[in-house]
Every structure is written in structure tokens, then in C-alpha cells.
Amino acid sequence: MEDTRQTADGALTRVEQVMRIVRERIASRALAAGARVPSIRTMSEQSGVSKSTVVEAYERLVAEGALVARRGSGFFVAGAGGMAVPGVQPQPRLDREIDPLWLTRQSLETDARALRPGCGWLPASWLPQDAVRRALRAIARDPRAQLTDYATPLGQPALRQHLSWRLAQHGIGAEPGQIVLTDGGSQALDLLCRFLLQPGDTVLVDDPCYFNFQAMLRVHGAKVVGVPYTPTGPDPAAFERVLAEHRPRLYVTNSAIHNPTGATLAPAVAHRVLKLAEEHGLTIIEDDIFADFETDPAPRLAAFDGLARVIAIGSFSKTMTAAARCGYIAARADWIEPLVDLKLAVSFGNGELTADLVQRLLVDGTYRRYLEGLRARLADAMGDTLRRLAAAGLTAWTRPQAGMLLWARLPDGLDAAQVAREALADGVVLAPGNVFSVSRGAGEYLRFNASQCNRPKVYETLQRAMERAALQTSPQSAWERVD
Asked: What is the mean pLDDT of the chain?
């Protein structure tokens, strides 16, 4: 068993300490390829840890390719190709074209110390990490827990039963047999694209919309068309024109809390959208991933429609944990069997362990209490972010009723892409508007995540980035503004 006590440096376990010692000796060439590493007893004495700790460290180094074990002889440094010695992490490319996957790459690849006011998730410290640990321990102790086998085709029955109840709270009637579990919301959307689309089909999205909708649809060979989004939902007149002109097969949207604008759908707009969808034979995928951020639930297209032509998808990556991917599809009953067959064909099911984890957190009351505190914390963060952005000269497009996302316009016609590049050079990841816009008509906007905007450096860097971006476009006027 790993010795998990902290070392004197307060960060590494004793096993990790031994691993670091060996890695440093290999990197400095004190241990060359093929050299025998100190015996277990010698390393135990040198590093002041138990022999079992050294054995665990050496076994891990074997597993990662740094060492090789030779029966009866000990442990030796692997050959030249055996290990990539840890070094400098690759830095994000500032010259890459800003496309729908640019923001994801910057948010995930930048140094862990970078600030991410443009990302779409909560800080790790805001998530219920202690509750997740308790649930994992409970699963490990439960002899009934399934830790090694495949899940049933639809997914864990207990979780689907609970999801049926949760959907009913939003007016969506879905029996457990109408719910398919997936490995997150992205897999849910991928399965539906495989099920509903052929290459060349036209798909309608909001403009602006969640950038990964565009990326996913283009992977499936779809033609993506945007409809202008307003603070109450898609513009009904534009929606009707686009349907008549392009005859889209599918419409993909958020309803509860729109990404990236933070807006919510109005009932009158929802009714108009559904009427037009019926007239034009349009199927709708409604992504409800931000549902648990709401205090007062917004209208759902799936509730008004009864899952006749609307498919509801969601996951718990934004509010519970992104490390255990668990999502769902709720759809009309006659679509479930082919969807399950498709899921089995491409992934052989979903994670039973993650489904068990999510189900336990949902039913023991911990998650409900956590959400109550989270919503209050987000409301405070949103108010603070709105004030600070206004002081910096940005204008909020709308004041979100809930959640963490905020859509704001830069002053003086600044180019958001250039501002984002300038900020990234200083270790701050911003989200430029055209990443979200099919028409590329949001060049003066940025998406902000209020939960990630609580550091003074965010606004200091934003101000400097705006000033440098202004100099790129109009040196004289910019100098007069910042002098």
C-alpha cells in the first residue's frame, strides 16, 4: 500500500518523493540507460522511507517506462527510448487561428497557474471534492458495487430512475426506459449526430452558441447555419426565415442557461420555436447541462413538446465533477433501441463506476445542499464581475438570472481575438466572441465566467491587453486614451 503521508515539502507523498529522486538522477545522467538503480534496502536508507514505499515507487517507474525489472537482479534504468524525461511543457500557440476548438486547447494546455476567466467550468475548489471522495470510499467498501464489469446497455437503472424524477421537476416526462446514460454531454451529442444526420445535412445553431456544437457538427460533415440569439431566445422571425431557406434537419441549443450569453428562454419564444419546428419537420436537441445552476427554472422546450421532436441531453460535468464523465439522453421511446445499439457499437456502453458515483451523490442529500451554497456564491460572483467589467469599460449584453456565464462587449470597437492573444501572453485565458459565432459577427465580444474572475490579475491583464490591442489598430488614438 502506498505511504500517503506528506513529506517535508508538504506536497509529495513518500512514494512520489522516491520517484522524484530517481527521475532527477536519470535526468542529470547520474544514472545512465541500463544502469542498476540503488537496491530497495539502499534507497530505503538513503531516502528515509520504508522498503514497501521504495517497492511501490520502483513499480510505478516500471509502469511508466522509466525502469525495467529483472527477476533476481533488481531494477535498471530503461533504454534511451524508455522514458521521456519530464521537461518544459509545450506552450500554447499564440498564432493559431481562433476557431471553435482554440479556446478548449488554451484552457486545457496552459500552465496550471494560468487564470481562465474565459473557460466554461467552475474552479476545482468550488466543486464538491470532499463529497466525491466520500462517495468513492463508500463505493470501494460496498460489496455490491460493480467495480470491474460492463454496464447494462441503457446504463445503471438506479441512476436512470432518479434522472426520470429530476426531469419531471422541469416538466419533462421521461420514463427510465426513455433515458440512455452516456459518458458525458459531448458523447450524448455525438451519438445523436450519428443517429440523426448524414454528411451534408444542414443543422441550425444559435448565433452565438456553445463553440463545441460547431466543432462536433463539422466532424459529422454537417452544414452549420446560425440564427441570431436575443436575451429571450432565438429571434423568431429570423428562425422562420432560416427554416424556410435552409430546411435544416436539426436545431441544437441551450434553453435553461444559454452558453455563451447567460440568457434564458422566454415562454412565448419557446412556443413559437416549437410551432415552427412542427411546421418544418425540425428535430431539436436541447442541451440542459447548466440546469442545476438555476434558482427559478426557465422554460424547457422538451417540457412543452413532451419529447415528441425535442431530445433532452445533460451531464454533471459542470456542477459535480468533470473527472467522472456521466451524461444522459432523454428521447421518445421508439428511438431508444437504435440509440442503445449505436452506443454499444461505438463505445460498448458507459462507465458503471462513474454512474454509481453520480447516483450516490444525487440521492444522499449532499449534492442538494452543495448546490444551495453554490448558487448563492455564483450570484455574488456575477454581481462582482458585472461591476468590475463595467469599470473596465465593457458592456454586459444581458444580466444573467443564474449561472456563471456572462457575454460582454469591449469598448471602442476593440477586436476580442487580439485582446485574447495579448492576455494569453500574460497567462490569462479569455474567450473571444467569434469562437462562438457562426457568422463571425461577435468580434467585439468576450465570454466571461464569473466564478473564474475573482482575481485582481484578471482585470489588470484585461486592461493591459485592451490597451495593447488598441495600439495594434490605431496607435495615435490608443496613445491618447492610455496616456
From this structure: 90
Q: How many domains does the chain have?
A: 3
- What range defines the domain where residue 457 resides? 102-126+371-482
CA of 390: how far to CAs of 312, 383, 395, in Å?
Answer: 36, 11, 6
> CA-CA distance, 278 to 298, in Å (whole number)?
22
Q: Are 310 and 301 in contact (CB under 8 A)?
A: yes
**Hey, what's the torsion of the CAs at 211, 103, 262, 259, to 10 degrees?**
20
Return all residues near 91 (Cβ < 8 A) that are at least 6 apart: 110
Q: Kindly give, in sequence order, each residue whose CB lies less than 8 Å from that of residue 270, ignoring residues fewer than 6 positions away.
A: 233, 255, 299, 300, 301, 304
Q: Which of 209, 210, 192 is nearest to 201 (CA)?
A: 192
Torsion of the alpha carbons at 48, 54, 60 and 62, rounded to the nearest 10: 120
Grid coordinates belonging to 92: 500554447
Residue 359 lies in a domain: no
Confidence at residue 364, expressed as pLDDT on a 0 to 100 scale: 86
Residues 290 and 433 in one domain: no
The model's pTM: 0.81
